[in-house]
Amino acid sequence: MCYLKFSTAFKKSKRLTLYGTSFQVSATMVNCTISENRAVSTKPNTLYGGGILATNGANLTMLDCNVRRNFATNEGGGLAFVGAHVHMERCLVTENHALYGGGLIVDSSSDLSCVETSFISNEADRGAGIYLGGSSTMSSFVRCTIAFNRASKGSGDGLYITYGTVYLNSSSVYNNTGSGAYFTLRSGAAYG
Amino acid sequence: MYVEASTPNNPNVGPFDLETSLGSNGIGSVFFWYNMYGQSMGTLALQIYSNVSGWGEHWSKSGDQGEDWQMGAVDIDSMEALKLKFVFFTGSSYTSDVAIDDINITRPTTFAPSITPSPSNTPSPTCMPSKTSAPSQDPTYLPTTATSAPSQEPTYAPTTVMAFTISQFQNALEENGKTISVSSDILLSVPLMMSNVTAVRIIVNNFEVSGGGGAGCFYIVDSEVWISDLVVTNCSSLGYGRGLTIYGYSQVSLLGCIFSHNEVNTDVGGAIYFEGIESANYYTPPGKSSISKITLRNCTLTQNSGGYGGAISFNYMVSDYIDTFTVYVLP
């Protein structure tokens, strides 16, 4: 079993600054179920967000939502955040499938804060649970669980991190097939 | 509002009040969420004050309502209402904590906003909702209101509307009052009064847009819309159409809605596409702020398909107003 527990994040900085509430344009989802949706086409390498795509500066808050069994041909089987500002709390992301980022992909100057959110049993070639890429992305996971995800190409079954800044605080990454967290940072930093 | 029922707040202690002034605009409907979980739960009530009749109770609930949050929906529709308050009495023991959250108040249907509509979407005066269009005495059109027993559901056949327009929307309300079955486009292109829209159950089924550029089942532009129990299935389009498309300065709230088996061929948002763009192409009604907002609560989106965002795509939202602030201060 691979068990990684991160509990020291922020102890030096004490705080994390994210983009916040003064949104003039916003989307909120509370207690919603997003299941068995698909982002599919014959066009290769262009399709993402089997469940939800938030992009181009979208401000999205998801509370107590269930994202399960969605599929994307390319990226973000459950969720794709591309240039978006997203807060997730008490959500469950399970059994989603994609080429990259089975449960979630974060890309292109996005910022994401996850609190008490679980990414369970998702599948992808890389980053089965979560794929974090794109320059200038910032992601934080507080009291989150990333477990039982499976990457068929063996890289980043739980987390696949390539770019940006990642904070893991009091979160658990365990029982993912192969590597729990795969850090291949091309730029940015990871704190945990 | 949260009331802790531990000693000394039991047994049967109260009233605990949450009161607000309504100004001079009156009140249409009140939507709120409450949690009344506990074996000895007391009584929560909604009261309205007017100079004509004083305080009057419009809604109440007693006893254990289960662990989950429940939605309250109360249609009042009064220009005379001046104040609103929630009143709670605890029960026989400490197991009667209560909480209220997310209170939304709509304008009355008799309220006439000073709206100059977009030149391209000029409605006729007859399009404005009237109080007679929705019988306010029967609460059964608010499907999540717990006081509505299933046996009290409307028995009349739903109105089927083809080529939906604002005036037809209004006519359907007047003819039918409660349920509208739609089999063609709905175009909500003027700011509708929220209470009018919330008072109707809109059912969309087996709808198909053929050809590119279709708007899908729902197309909302620069409108304030509150819809509950909306069911959108089998909407499809080869173009930008999908189950629900929202553009411009719209504020849309969806409660308990279901979107299933909707499809947009290779484009974005199989079920819902929300584009809160700030653009010269969109008209901002006088007195309305440039706000685009969508809220989905207790909604299910399943088995929808698209090229990007199989269920939902949130796109092209302005970020000029984003401020930075501190989210977490950790130990």
Give an overview in words:
The complex is a heterodimer of chains A (192) and B (331). Chain A is an all-beta fold and 192 residues long. Chain A has one domain. Chain A is 0% helix and 53% strand. Chain A contains no helices and 26 strands. Chain A has strands at residues 3-6, 15-19, 25-30, 33-35, 38-39, 52-55, 59-63, 66-68, 71-72, 79-82, 85-89, 92-94, 97-100, 104-107, 111-115, 118-120, 123-126, 130-132, 138-142, 145-147, 150-155, 159-161, 165-169, 171-174, 181-183, 189-191. In chain A, the strands form five sheets. A seven-stranded mixed beta sheet of chain A has the order 1-24-20-16-12-8-4, with no helix packed on it. The model of chain A is unreliable at 1-23 (pLDDT under 50). Chain B folds into two domains: 2-105, Sandwich (Jelly Rolls); 119-315, no CATH class. Chain B is elongated. Chain B contains two helices and 25 strands. In chain B, strands 9, 10, 12, 14, 17, 18, 21 and 22 form an eight-stranded parallel beta sheet that branches. In chain B, strands 11-13-16-20-24 form a five-stranded parallel beta sheet, with no helix packed on it. Chain B has helices at residues 166-176, 194-198, and strands spanning 2-3, 16-21, 27-35, 43-50, 54-62, 70-78, 81-89, 98-105, 159-161, 179-182, 186-188, 201-204, 218-221, 224-233, 236-237, 244-247, 251-255, 258-260, 263-264, 272-275, 292-297, 300-302, 305-306, 312-315, 324-329. Chain B is mainly β and 331 residues long. At the A-B interface, strand 2, strand 3, strand 4, strand 5 and strand 6 of A face strand 21, strand 22, strand 23, strand 24 and strand 25 of B. Strand 4 of chain A pairs parallel with strand 22 (300-302) of chain B.
